[in-house]
Amino acid sequence: PQKIILDCDPGHDDAIALMLALASPELEVLGITTVYGNVALERTTHNALVVLEVLGRRVPVHPGADRPLVRERISAEAVHGTSGLAGPPLPTPSQQPQDLHAALFIIEQVERHPGEVALVPVGPLTNLALALRLRPQIAPKIRQIVLMGGSVDLGNWTPSAEFNILADPHAARIVFESGVPLAMMGLNLTHQAIAHPHWVARFRGLGNRAGTFAAELLEFFREHHQKRYGWDGAPIHDACAVAYLVRPELFQTKPLHVAVETNEGLCFGRTVCDYWGVTGKPPNCRVGLRVDPEGFFELLLERIGNH
Ligand code: BDR
Ligand code: CA
């Protein structure tokens, strides 16, 4: 199986990403690293442990950055609730977080398994940037980075920028300039993966604890997206990054050059995707363009049903 480290800020869709990763035999989750993002680091770390508790699984959780490199911290309680996982009842975790910082854990694992570890960041990219700056020698040893963030077109936190990239544009720039093989699942793709009520009903119908938990998360997550976008469901952004590793054939991608705007203007945090190759710069990223929503949700259902 592909060794991965899931770097997350749970978060409703992060929780679903975690459930998919831990139920997929194609993947070996070496550990979970947490970052501030949707809510503060203490909460995202707690929430990762909550999800493990729901699943009855033990996986090391390494907390990392509690703030961005340069800019001030932003957060998304408006989308995910004050807990970050609003909706279902949240059990008390029986596991403790690890002492080793997320960035150091990433370095340790990449050096232990050179060329074998895929990093899957689905929150702000601060932990990855810290790891790459602390130990630049790891870059050629990272198999690939498959991230949820950015967009070929519209933003969601500003008209230009997506939340994860806007939360730490400087960290994102370090990652996009790292030379590591990258795949980006941005909003242009994740907005095709909307959990409409008939999908949510099927999660509930799975009848296991994970299925019920997923359904309750998705019901809450839907409300914000209904109000803001008029959509009858929420996009399961983060699970797209994991699904890409499990079932790449569900995705259509295109190699593009992607740069991150770090000037603090209207486009701060934008992923500037050179779709037509007008810059002449070589592609540094496989950019997700299409996902098959049926295939994606059937995969989620099958795997979450197996928990
Ligand atoms: C991203 O922002 C967060 O709110 C979600 O968890 C996802 O990672 C979408 O813009
Ligand atoms: Ca996230």
From TrEMBL:
Keyword Hydrolase: yes
Domain Inosine/uridine-preferring nucleoside hydrolase stretches: 4-298
Keywords: Glycosidase, Hydrolase
Enzyme class, spelled out: hydrolase
GO molecular function list: purine nucleosidase activity; uridine nucleosidase activity
Biological process annotations from GO: purine nucleoside catabolic process
Xref: InterPro entries: I/U_nuclsd_hydro_CS, Inosine/uridine_hydrolase_dom, IUNH, Ribo_hydro-like
Enzyme Commission numbers on file: 3.2.2.8
Domain of life of the source: Bacteria
GO annotations of cellular component type: cytosol
Pfam families with a match to the protein in the record: IU_nuc_hydro (PF01156)
PROSITE patterns recorded: IUNH
Protein name from the UniProt record: Pyrimidine-specific ribonucleoside hydrolase RihB
Gene name of the record: rihB
